[in-house]
Predict the 3D structure of the following.
Amino acid sequence: MNLILFGPPAAGKGTQAKRLVQEHGMVQLSTGDMLRAAIASGSELGARVKGVLDRGDLVTDDIVIALIEDRLPEAEAAGGAIFDGFPRTVAQAQALDKMLAARGQKIDLVLRLKVDEPSLIERISKRFAEQGRADDNPEVFVTRLAAYNAQTAPLLPYYIEQGKLTELDGMASVETVAASIDAALSGAA
Ligand code: AMP
């Protein structure tokens, strides 16, 4: 089972992905986590992308596509991946379909966590205060939301056409969202 958790920043994708890893043994592939790890390790890639993350813009498609491609064998061995924060552009979605098809696999389900913008802004100020992640600061968050609206939201028709999109109320409690995800997964199994 290959699943995409889809939604704007702070929709709860990471939280739900981590729970799925613990309870279902799936592998979480978060390009945001991979990029932050590259920056923390001081690698050449990290140095290249740091400014982009700090501004809240998207890094180029080839970088994240390569990061994901490297991890597909591991996800396949575990029986499936939860894509978290990837794909974020139509080009990334097309590349993902191609990489999976080459391995005899596909995306089974795209779960969209719907959360309205005022709630996202409220959540992010709380997360910024608690965790101090630089790109959660209110000014950068505006850029991240704009990137979502301009470059990522246009992916919705792509997955609707493929008949893969299920929408969930991401405003509900973490437990309720988790239960709707489990219900969607059993329906798709
Ligand atoms: P996230 O933790 O998913 O919110 O990602 C943090 C930041 O990493 C984003 O604001 C982008 O700068 C970058 N990033 C993560 N995933 C992608 C992606 N799929 N495509 C382009 N940039 C990404």
About this structure: The radius of gyration is 16 Å. DSSP finds nine helices and five strands in the chain. The CA atoms of residues 53 and 63 lie 13 Å apart.
